[in-house]
Task: structure prediction
Amino acid sequence: TSLMKFQFISVNLLSVLEGLALATFCGLVYYAAFFLQTMISPWVNYTQGIDWLFIPAGIKLVAFMIAGVWGFLGIAVFGLITAFDVWQSDSLAVHVGNILIWAGVPYVTYRFVAKMLSLDLELINLKYGHVVAIALATTLTSSVGSSLYQYLINNRSFDMLTLTTFAMVIGDFIATGVCVFALTFAVRKSGKGI
Result:
């Protein structure tokens, strides 16, 4: 009995360690994408925190698709780290709220849309039409949620709300489409699940 308990604990601990490694990997890829974004941002910037092409948004969705909740955790933690670069004057509580909306809302949206499209966990049945639907749904909910949050904490004025949301949807959708189409293409070429 004690051997069985030890094996159960060992398997669960290994699963958690693998999950943490996956979360860390997703977070590091996100962080690298954010660093790349800081280099191209002067050419694609619309306003503070919004670019017409935002590569980390695409990485965020790919992490959700490949790593599930572990991808969400990695993005949330590293997103919190990068939030201090974008919104230096905000408090930790404001950053946590922003990350919960910016990562949590699209994660829940992705899970809902994947269920509605009957996608399997390995994404074998993922089609290009699914990619468009997922990218549109997640970028819309993320952008609307983030813009409303920024308005509620007085980081955006009401008259900027529509314009910033529109710019964010465009930037996130383009980057998400590029990243997810690249993932889909890689899956199709490999002939295997992710």
